[in-house]
Amino acid sequence: MPKVLVIGEFSDGVISDFTRELITAASTLSESVILGIASAEIDSSVNFPNIAGVESLVTISIDSPNFDAEIQRSATDALIDHVQPEVIVMPFNYRAASFAGAIAEKRNLGFATDVVNVYRDDQELVRIVRPIYGSRLLADVGFASTSSVLVLLRGSKWEPAKDVDGPINHTYLDFSVDSIKRMKHIEFIYPSGETGLKSADVIFSIGRGIGSPDNIQKFEVLAKKMGVTLGASRPIIDAGWMPPGHQVGQTGATVKPKLYVAFGISGALQHLAGMSGAKTILAINTDESAPIFGVAHLGASVDMMKVADELAALL
Amino acid sequence: MKIFVCIKYVSIASKYSEFILGDSDVDPVFLEHQVNEADFAALVEALRLRDEFGEAEVIVVSVGDEKVNEGLRACLALGADSAIRIYSNAIALHDPISVARALASVIRSEGADIVMCGVQSMDAGYQSTGPIIASSLERTCVSVVSKIIWTNEFNSLKVQRDFEGGLMELLEVDLPAVITVLPGINEMRYPSFKDNLRAKKMEIQLKEPENLVVSQMKIGKVFFNEVSRKVQMLESDPKAVALKIIELVREAN
């Protein structure tokens, strides 16, 4: 049975939901799914849960923060050497993407990121689906039959795998790095201003369509009156019109509200990555060709400020 | 001091796109092109680093057929010192490894102190060109950077990396290095009419990469993202939309 290695994340004492989504996706490819984790938090006192679909767990203890791309890369290489998988599955986030391509290049692997579907064709070869030419189109992609493949999957596309009874088959892998470090960590800067975006049921999110910073107050008043949380796309934050804590998207918060109303947001890939998991998405944008309509359930081609005025009048 | 900036002249499909026979690609007349936003931001950073350093040159480099010259000219107009277009039939343009190796091959032969590019492209969004170039050149890569400052000795850079959820890391990286930047790192600049005229007269070198490996990937077919066809459009009346929002908010709370 060809092996699938899932490179998982373990921080703050838990295996991330994203990792569990990867396990679900990997389980559709093989019954032999090995979960590999390199983390600064691993020692013999940690009790890992047994997860549905996982055949065994291999862990590496590292002595640097989980964000160190060079160490993560070496540790991931060690996991691949140990498991010898046919398919390697990783999360598509900044942390993993900062070194995954380098691993694929050195090992000459088939490689794809932002993968929204992965499956086997009728010859049992692994194929993937990912965006092409922007977010409107997808491409179905195959790889040379002789190569192993490394794929980074998009979040919120698969159901997270659940815990099951019984102990997990766990191997600790020895690991050391002796390379000269060319990067020197100075400090971490933690996000300030907790806005409650991550736990919000309803988010009103503002994009470039707002036109002027003077218009933001209208939405602050609306959000307060309606009891909803205010978010924004990256350009609004970069322009300094709203504090960084409000940013939705890959460098901001990844949100999963029941309702996400996108006001004047065009829908760059980096924004879509942070909100496409919302249950209902309503996009309001005068540009009907904006990519946001590609992920929205409901859309309206109207001026966002006129809608804001109507809302204010109705409340 | 040589600073290379890798530029992608992206191709965005229109919503009316039609496909070529066999659906293996989009009919090229439905593709719109522009310089990748994040790569432009990388160029603006490179120009600033050059000007602060003094004796330095910024070289823009791009992979593709003749149409990418237009993108390279926009970069020359913004202030890049020279431009190189890389082309060969052996490059698989949809394979990030093939493209990044081609870039690395030329950058290696020219010699670079800093290689910069955007975090990701607007059309493919792999987030991998920088890391793959670094791997191919055996260099360090710092990804997803939102701030770059020279250190006092001008032999290393202080950079700020962004992560999901708003966490940031400050670190110092020795040169030579590869850096990928976010589009918001600086304010977009626009060339003047005179700049454009000057750029029009500048030469764009054409180079062929060496030792290309055969690409491991092959596109089977392209198709519309189904979700994008499922969006239900409401009546274009602000009051009706406002009422619908109130109804949806009530349901969700």
Overview of the structural elements:
- The complex is a heterodimer of chains A (315) and B (253).
- Chain A contains 7 helices and 20 strands.
- With 315 residues, chain A is α/β, with parallel strands linked by helices.
- Helix content of chain A is 23%, strand content 30%.
- The mean pLDDT of chain A is 92.
- In chain A, helix 2 (69-83) packs across helix 3.
- With 253 residues, chain B is α/β, with parallel strands linked by helices.
- Chain B has a single domain, classed as Rossmann fold.
- Chain B has 7 helices and 13 strands.
- Chain B has helices spanning 37-53, 68-78, 96-110, 129-137, 193-201, 226-230, 238-252; strands at residues 2-6, 9-13, 31-35, 57-63, 82-86, 114-118, 140-150, 156-162, 168-174, 177-181, 204-207, 217-224, 232-233.
- In chain B, the strands form 2 sheets. Chain B has a 9-stranded mixed β-sheet with strand order 9-8-7-10-6-1-4-5-11. Chain B has a two-stranded antiparallel ribbon with strand order 2-3.
- In chain B, helix 3 (96-110) crosses helix 4.
- The longest helix of chain B is centred in the N-terminal third of the chain and has 17 residues, at 37-53.
- Chain B is globular, with a radius of gyration of 21 Å.
- The mean pLDDT of chain B is 94.
- At the A-B interface, helix 3, strand 8, strand 10, strand 11 and strand 15 of A face strand 2, helix 3, helix 4, strand 7 and strand 8 of B.
- Strand 15 of chain A pairs antiparallel with strand 9 of chain B.
Shape of chain B: globular
The appropriate CATH architecture of the largest domain in chain A is 3-Layer(aba) Sandwich
End-to-end gap of chain A:
61 Å
Strand content of chain A: 25-35%
The CATH class of chain B = Alpha Beta
Give a count of the beta strands of chain A, DSSP E runs of length 2 or more: 20
The name of the CATH topology of chain B is Rossmann fold
Low-pLDDT parts of chain B are none
The chain-level structural class of chain B is alpha/beta
Average pLDDT of chain A, to the nearest integer? Answer: 92
Radius of gyration of chain A (CA) equals 21 Å
Tally of distinct domains of chain A: 2
Low-confidence sequence ranges of chain A? none
Look at the structure and give the mean pLDDT of chain B: 94
Which of globular, elongated, flat, extended, rod-shaped describes the shape of chain A? globular
CA gyration radius of chain B, whole angstroms: 21 Å
Arrangement of strands in the largest sheet of chain B: 9-8-7-10-6-1-4-5-11
